[in-house]
Amino acid sequence: MPTMNELSAQVHQTALDKGWYDGGGRTFGEVIALMHSELSEALEDYRNGAAPESTWYEKKTDGERHISREPVDETWKPCGIPSELADVVIRVMDACAYYGIDLDRAIQEKMAYNATRPHRHGGKTI
Ligand SMILES: [Mg+2]
């Protein structure tokens, strides 16, 4: 199983290959805003009635939108909350690879710290 850092490198290479870093890339603020936008897309799917675990597939051909419950092939776009959450993780991984962040270490450190925190962090409601 690949590490988070290995997946991050792969995600970042795809972003490079697809031209997202041509011309100098994005500012840190833009990178964070794009992470937010994927969460907003997940919320919008939910607001439109999608179940959190539901995935469907779309393909546009000749200006017409086709939808399938099952993937037809890799050219059909996965849609729904799982796909939007995957986009969040992909954007986080891309940023970590770009900025040289050791995501495996950061997650392990944060999980270890979280395990030491008090129940509900001292009475927070959510
Ligand atoms: Mg998205």
TrEMBL record:
CDD domains in the record: NTP-PPase_u5
Protein name: NTP pyrophosphohydrolase MazG putative catalytic core domain-containing protein
Species in which this protein is naturally found: Paenibacillus stellifer
